[in-house]
Amino acid sequence: MNFIDNPGKLRGFEKHIRVEKVSRRSILKGLGVTGGFVLAAPVMSRQAFAYETGAGKMPHGVVVDPRVFVAVAPDGTVTILAHRAEMGTGVRTSLPLIVAEEMEADWSRVKVEQAHGDEVKFGNQDTDGSRSTRHYLIPMRQIGASARTMLEQAAAKRWGVPATEVKAVNHEVVHSASGRKLGFGELAADAAKESVPAIEGLKLKDPKDFRYLGKGQVGIVDLHDITTGKARYGADVRLPGMKYAVIARPPVTGGKLVSFDPDAALKVPGVEKVMQARGWPWPSKFQPLGGVAVIARNTGAAIKGRDALKLTWDDGANGKYDSVAYRKELEEASRKPGLVVRQEGDADAALKGADKVVVGEYYLPHLAHVSMEPPVAVADVKGDKAEIWAPVQSPGGTREDVAKTLGIPEDNVTVNVTLLGGGFGRKSKCDFALEAALLSKELGAPVKVQWTREDDLHHDFLHTVSVERIEAGLDKSGKVIAWRHRSVAPTIASTFAAGANHAAPFELGMGLVDMPFEIANISCENPEAAAFTRIGWFRSVSNIPRAFAVQSMVGEIAHATGRDQKETLLALIGSPRIVKPAVKDMWNYGEPYDSYPIDTARLRKVVELVAEKGEWGRQVPKGHGLGIAVHRSFVSYIATIVEVAIDEKGKLSVPRVDTAIDCGTYVNPERIASQIEGAAIMGLSLAKYGAVTFKDGKVEQKNFDDFQVIRMDESPGVTNVYIVPPGPDTPPSGVGEPGVPPFAPALMNAIFAAAGKRIRSLPLGKQLEA
Amino acid sequence: MIKVKINGQEQSWDGDPDLPLLWFLRDEAGLTGTKFGCGQALCGACTVIVDKEAVRSCITSINDVAGREVTTIEGLHPNGDHPVQKAWRQVNVPQCGFCQAGQIMQAAALLMENPKPSHDQIREAMAGNICRCGCYQRIENAVHLASTGV
Ligand code: FES
Ligand code: FES
User: Fold this and answer.
1) Which site among A543, A609, B63, B94 is 20 to 30 Å from A462 CA-CA?
2) Backbone angles phi, psi at A386, to 5 degrees
3) Distance between CA A614 and CA A638 in Å, rounded?
């Protein structure tokens, strides 16, 4: 079975990991890197798929070319390029593993190399949107199958037998009729001369022969390096003659430097220079905010120097941003009609005629990403050439933006992608790399720009702040006949264009217009909301507020009708069906709707699975309660049950979490489990503590003492993960983000069950202690 | 001139005596395994072992460790096979991995002091080390595994 009951107990990963030291030269002799071989990117044909994905529509699409992604050295070492960024999801393991599977490489003889940013060469590299496995399962299989075919053809030629008589098996090609065998290394040089087979004719492995895919028995490729301190993150890059910099940025978004006095800073031992850093007016996408940079011989000196700076700022118009006042504005907007973004039936009339109307107004504050590694980048700009080393989710975008910012051709920019110490969407924005590039250019030396945690909190591209108001009209039997959802929140589009006041289509498609309940009269509205700081993607984005509101409302309806939460939820989901999109061109995570429709049978299935495995309805001790929630996001289906315990003083703990995920065909269930375990922690963090607030335009929180996240002593007692076995042709779907949205509403439904108190405003904070 | 032994090697420093050990290790000595996560002793990413105790190198000055012995993740075991490191690999603990050096050093210090910690003792001793990716369940299992023999 594919269920993972206790992934923490898996043993024996180590033997699968071997980090080979292969000199570059031996790779260069191998398959794939011979000079004139790189062709214009063959973007894969649509027909080659059992299903279609949106991969081909991403900027630069997909490249299926074994010569770009695979190299076989004469000693048999197979090097596979990882072209997506590793931020903790396991993608640097999972995608190369697909190639290794399909080419019959022995994973213990595979070395993974990170691709630099070059989307023409590698295809889209924007590691975001929970897309990597979804978009690359088939292409990586095709790349592996091509490489295998080339090795088989080379062996067949050597032996003078038809290619149909030979077969690659575990790192060698075998001719069973004669009992002859040749290792991949022995075939490397000849295989490199074979032409790349047409995608259409490739024979992919029968899934029943898979050795690695769907098994979850390999450790992550960086495991040894991470546990010994050798893994290289952005901050770990050191270049000869490199300077260390920190920057004092305008405390208010859109603020400007008026004057600065560098004298005291220059007296700090180790400080070498104080200089102005170029900034752009707000909003300007990912361009730096500017300010004053302190350059030193080490980071400690640079920080101390910055503390000694005397700075005067002009805060500008956003100096008025105040979270308490802004919340009132959002609440008021949510109580008045707004832009209608979805309409079915007549929700107004049905609400008026309803027997009972349940109203929930939910507030969710700004959140900061606080990835463990604060933003950091190293740049070395010489003349019209730039080289960057940085933990970026989007190396292609970074390359483009560095080129534009420095005014040099993109071909002159090299972006080396280090490991990311967490990303969660923050590192999709390359402002920190642009800062380093600009400083290096001006200094004429390599420089590292290190953000402190305070910088990270003060200058994040924050998760939005929102009020979600839902009115549900019930008839006499308790059936929901009307649903009005108003969602008010500053939009991410405001970071790209001044005056963007309504949600972008992709934001509407995250839990608002795609809401799957079977209700006759539905109205979704999106009243205006202005932004006063930089808004950006945060793991699962608008799904957080939408799932929170919708799934909390399910709990409220269950209470109002005296029914079980799970039964209420299933009744609202309604019959198993393919939901017809309620709006034209509904954003569907960039995927074609035919391949990835809203399938309520799958939605019901995860609810039923988690209820069964998670023992929904079990007797819990006094002070405990169970809550359930389900949400489809990133075209995956996830349901979570949370058990809470609340003591006499109102102190909350979480003894148990159960989550069921249907992410279609999957690659590495072990990493799926780790993502879901992590999503429970992130969900609990945001539900219990998460809030970034503004006063006088400035972020009030500074560090992990006032922007708290869950620590081990508060983490769930146990988190169980259940993965739905996919159907034969179920396309793969997202994993990195969708675990987050159902957690907070499941928690609040559990709190209601335990204590009878409905929490509608996040974070929980001390609300239970009052 | 401040002298300090790091991973068995004598090192010296004649710059600012207040320089946090973290930045000496990372930027001056090139030992980048120790990470910066908060600079305020709030996250544990910078944890090293001084003599036999886990300390946060971000708030410990180089002067504070003069004449003492500092062990970083690079020096925990010559081949990276300390029981804690082995347990970590068996459980496949890390996600992004950035907090893990600090977690491992904290766990190693815990086991030096208390070779058989209980469930609650593990959760308490490790509470100073934040993992934003949320690997706590596996960290807990790995510490337990290390304490019972890998
Ligand atoms: S960096 Fe030292 S505790 Fe966070
Ligand atoms: S593994 Fe990413 S912070 Fe712990």
Assistant:
1) B94
2) -135, 135
3) 13
Tell me the pairing of strands B2-6 and B9-13: antiparallel
Supply B139's token pair. 């960290």
Beta strands in A41-165 (DSSP E): 70-72, 78-82, 110-114
Contacts of B137 in chain A (CB under 8 A): 8, 677, 715-716, 718-719
User: Per-residue pLDDT for A166 more than 60?
Assistant: yes
* Residue pairs between chains A and B whose CB atoms are closer than 8 Å: 223
pLDDT at residue A728 in the model: 81
Ligand 2 centre to CA of A111 (Å) is 23
DSSP designation for A695: E
Q: How far is B62 from chain A (nearest CA, A)?
A: 11
Give the SS3 label for residue A283. Answer: coil
Spatial separation of the C-alpha atoms in residues A166 and A589, rounded to whole Å: 42
* Proportion of chain A above pLDDT 70, given as a percent: 93
Q: Report the C-alpha dihedral over residues A586, A591, A592, A594, rounded to 10 degrees.
A: -100
Interface of B with A in 70-109 (CB under 8 A): 72-74, 76, 80, 85-86, 88-92, 94-101, 104
Q: How many CB atoms lie within 10 A of CB A155?
A: 28
For residues B13-27, average pLDDT: 98
What CATH number was assigned to the domain covering residues B83-148? 1.10.150.120
CA dist., res. A644 & res. A626, Å (int): 7
Alpha carbons A554 and A677: distance in angstroms, whole number: 24
E strands within A87-198? Answer: 110-114, 166-169, 172-175, 180-183
Q: Which residue of B has its CA nearest to A456?
A: B38
Interface predicted TM-score (ipTM):
0.99
A7-228: which CATH architecture? 2-Layer Sandwich (3.30)
Q: How many helices (H) and strands (E) does chain A have?
A: 20, 26
Does residue B21's CB lie within 6 angstroms of at least one atom of ligand 1? Answer: no
Positive or negative, the CA dihedral A752, A608, A538, A487 is negative
User: Which of A372, A457, A458 is most worth mutating to test chain B (most B CB atoms within 10 A of its CB)?
Assistant: A372
Give the residue among B140, B74, B66 at the shortest CA–CA distance from B110. Answer: B140
Closest by alpha carbon to B74, among A226, A697, A555? A226
Give the nearest chain A residue to B78 (CA atoms).
A228
pLDDT digits (tens, 9 = 90+) for A86-123: 999 999 999 999 999 999 999 999 999 999 999 999 99
Residue range B2-75, CATH number: 3.10.20.30
Sheet holding B47-50, edge to edge: B9-13, B2-6, B69-71, B47-50, B53-56
Please give the residue of chain A at the shortest CA–CA distance from B17: A269
Fold of A323-368+461-755: Aldehyde Oxidoreductase; domain 4 (3.30.365)
Question: What class is the A234-317+375-450 domain?
Answer: alpha beta
Q: Is the CB of B42 under 6 A from ligand 1?
A: yes
Q: What ranges do the domains of chain B cover?
A: 2-75, 83-148
Vertex B73: Cα angle to B106 and B84 (nearest 5)? 55
Whether B83-148 and B2-75 are alike in CATH topology: the answer is no
Q: What is the pLDDT of residues A724-764, one digit of tens each?
A: 999 888 999 999 999 999 999 999 999 999 999 999 999 99
User: What tens digit of pLDDT does each residue of A607-664 get?
Assistant: 999 999 999 999 999 999 999 999 999 999 999 999 999 999 999 999 999 999 999 9
Q: Cβ contact (<8 Å) for A227 and B94?
A: yes
pTM for the structure as a whole: 0.94
Chain A residues closer than 8 Å to B20 by CB:
300
Enumerate the residues of chain A whose CB falls inside 8 A of the CB of residue B72. 229
The segment(s) of chain A belonging to CATH 3.30.365.10 are: 7-228, 234-317+375-450, 323-368+461-755
Token pair of A392 as six digits: 């970026």
